[in-house]
């Protein structure tokens, strides 16, 4: 059974780039790697509802913190068997966002901390009720909200398919989310966390070896 490693961070932190680089570094060691990114746009009806809602569809659904969190959770619940299959077939499975992302953004939207009610609700829903596979490690790619926002803007300008959504465009939300992520990491929420500097860069070969140790 492989190790389940989750990459978390703000929108624009560079999670996709880290996932691609870390995959190559792991494969260089001879490890087999599977990967999955959430939300699963184009593959999951719940993920597509999320995207449509974040781009001003479905009336006032985006205003409901718990409603949006439920859609994210249902997208992951629908991928549970796929994750288990990837774990059975690979040494490492990298996930771009997972349960902690739901906890961080929901708490930030409600102006709660990591020890608040909505974070516990996310745990009870996704881990306890849906029985999602628990990660072995989290990698928090930390950048300032300002840097993340600048990167997200550049990404949207260069890729029309990745236009900034309502959450990405809310600078205050991103700042609060960064704070909750730090709290989750400090509390080793759901699994141990390793904080990475998303500006200075990551020593990928060293990180890959540590994940396999």
Q: What value does the average pLDDT take?
A: 94
Terminus-to-terminus distance: 14 Å
Work out the helicity level. 40-55%
What is the fold named in CATH at topology level? Rossmann fold
Decide which structural class fits the backbone.
alpha/beta
- CATH architectural category: 3-Layer(aba) Sandwich
Biggest sheet: strand arrangement: 2-3-1-4-5
Organism: Amycolatopsis echigonensis
EC number: 2.7.4.9
InterPro entries: P-loop_NTPase (IPR027417), Thymidylate_kin-like_dom (IPR039430), Thymidylate_kin_CS (IPR018095), Thymidylate_kinase (IPR018094)
Pfam family, one: Thymidylate_kin
Short description:
The protein has helices at 15-28, 45-54, 65-77, 80-89, 99-110, 117-129, 145-158, 171-186, 204-212, and strands spanning 3-8, 33-37, 92-96, 137-142, 193-197. The chain is of the alpha/beta class. The protein is globular, with a radius of gyration of 16 Å.
